[in-house]
Design brief:
This protein has one domain: Alpha-Beta Complex (50s Ribosomal Protein L17, Chain: A), CATH 3.90.1030. The protein is built from six helices and three strands. A three-stranded antiparallel sheet has the order 1-3-2. Strand 2 and strand 3 form a beta hairpin.
C-alpha cells in the first residue's frame, strides 16, 4: 500500500471515503495513485459480500461509512457480479490536472447488460444439470450378475 503522502489514519479515512463514494455513485474521478489503491479494496469487499452472511455484512459496515452504500452492495452489485470473481471496475486515464499536473483517472463499475447476465445464468444451470446427470449415471450400480455381463459386452 502506498503512503499517498498521508499518515496512516488520514490515508485509511481517505480510502474509505473513496470506496464509499464509488459504491454510491458508481463513478469517481481522482488521482491515478488513489485509483490504484481503491480498486483492489472495492473488489475484495464485493467478493466478501458474495458470501451473503452476517459476518460479511458486519465487515462491510465496519469499512464503508454509509449504511446505504452497504445496502447497495448487497442489492445491486452482488447480483450483478455473482458470476465474476474480479474485474468489476474499469480505470480510464483522463490526463493531467490543471492545478498541479497530477495524472487524473476515472474509476467506475463495469456495466453488464441484463442479456449477458441471463446467458451466464443459463450456462451455469446447464452445467449444473450436466454434472447432476453424470453423477446420477455413475452412482447407479448393476443389480445382478446378468446386468454386469451385459455391460461388459
Amino acid at each position: 500500500m502506498k503512503a499517498l503522502s498521508r499518515k496512516k489514519a488520514h490515508r485509511k479515512s481517505t480510502l474509505r471515503n473513496l470506496v464509499t463514494s464509488l459504491i454510491l455513485y458508481e463513478r469517481i474521478e481522482t488521482s491515478s495513485a488513489k485509483v490504484k489503491e481503491v480498486r483492489p479494496i472495492v473488489e475484495h469487499l464485493i467478493n466478501l459480500a458474495k458470501k451473503n452472511n452476517l459476518e460479511a455484512k458486519r465487515s462491510l459496515l465496519g469499512y464503508i461509512f454509509d449504511k446505504n452504500a452497504v445496502k447497495k452492495v448487497f442489492e445491486v452489485y452482488v447480483p450483478r457480479y455473482k458470476t465474476k470473481k474480479s474485474g468489476f471496475i474499469k480505470i480510464y486515464k483522463k490526463g493531467p490536472r490543471l492545478g498541479d499536473a497530477s495524472q487524473v483517472s476515472i474509476l467506475e463499475f463495469e456495466k453488464i447488460k441484463e442479456s449477458e447476465i441471463k446467458e451466464e445464468e443459463n450456462a451455469s444451470k446447464k452445467s449444473q444439470q450436466k454434472k447432476e446427470s453424470e453423477s446420477k449415471g455413475k452412482s447407479r450400480k448393476p443389480k445382478s450378475k446378468a446386468e454386469k455381463r451385459s455391460k461388459e459386452k
